[in-house]
Here is the input.
Amino acid sequence: MHVLVVEDEKKTASFIRKALQAEGFTVDVIYNGDEAAPFAAETSLDAIVLDIMLPGRDGLSVLRQLRARKITTPVLLLSARGEVDERVEGLDAGADDYLAKPFVLAELIARVRALGRRSRAHMPVELRIANLSLNTFTRTARRDTTDICLTSREYLLLEFLMRSVGRICSRSSILEQVWGYTFDPGTNLVDVYIRRVREKIDSGHSPKLLHSVRGSGYVMKIEP
Here is the structure.
């Protein structure tokens, strides 16, 4: 599962991120409401954990913006207030679930997992860019008619990149999402795996899909 957490309290966001990552989820965190909808529009997500009280756009405004853009990703609203009227307003705005603060992390995980099952039931299992396809159910890749053999870590890297088509993925974000590191181990681990994946998906094929962005990271996009 790929989850976006929109929470301005960095300590709370860190707790949520670590708890979800411990369950094997891929997690992105945004601390400002203004950035949430644009990110969700460009990223394949299974669920969004959205705080109501945010700098910039508040959570309810973000939720309305998501639904106005036809972004149907399931949303779990969080709020320090638990008034019935606020819960009703959130659900009417398009939220799928609501959890009042303070909450137990185990309950949040269970609710996010339930939203993910609902989302995955309507998601295609195949990711595709140009003539490269990745089946997320069988964890197999194919370029044109050629099957590509991937190790488990190469698969996780390719899936992350293909779910982020057109978006530059920094080395730190790759380390965090693919290896679960919240620090730089001081190795060229990412570069080594990028070279392996690029060799497997791009060598002998056109168009080239996996590109380096100097000083920034890597991006999947169609480029002759």
Notes: The chain has eight helices and eleven strands. The radius of gyration is 18 Å. The longest strand covers residues 217-223.
